[in-house]
Amino acid sequence: xxxxxxxxxxxxxxxxxxxxxxxxxxxxxxxxxxxxxxxxxxxxxxxxxxxxxxxxxxxxxxxxxxxxxxxxxxxxxxxxxxxxxxxxxxxxxxxxxxxxxxxxxxxxxxxxxxxxxxxxxxxxxxxxxxxxxxxxxxxxxxxxxxxxxxxxxxxxxxxxxxxxxxxxxxxxxxxxxxxxxxxxxxxxxxxxxxxxxxxxxxxxxxxxxxxxxxxxxxxxxxxxxxxxxxxxxxxxxxxxxxxxxxxxxxxxxxxxxxxxxxxxxxxxxxxxxxxxxxxxxxxxxxxxxxxxxxxxxxxxxxxxxxxxxxxxxxxxxxxxxxxxxxxxxxxxxxxxxxxxxxxxxxxxxxxxxxxxxxxxxxxxxxxxxxxxxxxxxxxxxxxxxxxxxxxxxxxxxxxxxxxxxxxxxxxxxxxxxxxxxxxxx
Length: 425
Prior knowledge:
Radius of gyration: 21 Å
Structural class: mainly alpha
Oligomer: single chain
Number of strands: 0
Largest sheet: none
């Protein structure tokens, strides 16, 4: 319990409860909408081809629009961008629902409204990370809470992928995919508006001069392109696991229930791993922590490739999942350290966009590989191999990430990982 006191201190930070509670609520749609879209279009058209196309353009719209939204949030302030997207995203979802009802399987209306739905999703992941980073600046009195804050945010984000699918199952059983998308629009809208009106978001100033100065120049910040490589590696593994686990379950004669149990083990491990990581302190520099965690994630996929029993895979997924949230936490800490304050929100949206795009690529590749006889172990190995460039980028002592982190202003960084290996006392 002593080690968890940092979370109590975090809850007492002015504005933090709103970020935690409504940050979770607003992001539930990230896991609900893609699945709901597939179900909606399939119900309307009777085929998965149109459903897959709709899901793909939704994902691409989301990935492409996030950096733009991040740039606008930096220029005009995050509250303004959140309020605008909170208003137009439900309109896009309703348009998608209507298009699926009245259009044919190959309708351009489905494609356009699916793309609009993805593109208008509020940039919640990025602005929340930016808000937490701003609340725990190195020159403030909460600098020692930065890691705890980002670990809490990452764990809550990971829980979205546990809670969201459960809500999908319940809503679809009680109604239809249309009801699901309406529910997603409601929770996303409420969460986004409450965040936009909250103290923490309103404390982030608009920086028009900084936005004009940096713009997409966040890509030119030393070390940041290498961070995008790491994000792409992690995103690829997320895509692979999304397809490979159901394929494993199908191979054992249970496409639904077993896949749910296995993915729940992964998600639970990630949430608990993130919570635990936020409660400890480590001596190692952030780039070294990042390299070790990325290497461990890569190794976990090699382990998955040789497992044949569902129980063994469930245990391995739980353990491997416990590495994911800590890796994402350190990734966010590094971005917060090396990117100037005026470009952070946009930088975080680039990280999200690259991760989502890589996830889509991992989905497609795994779908092709897993269909081949004996292909499933290779799918896991491909995911591990995709992590190699990320591990190398983080591990190089003379690499851009290490140099950028070293040259940044000294910071206690979160839960002061540079001070002790003992639990918080």
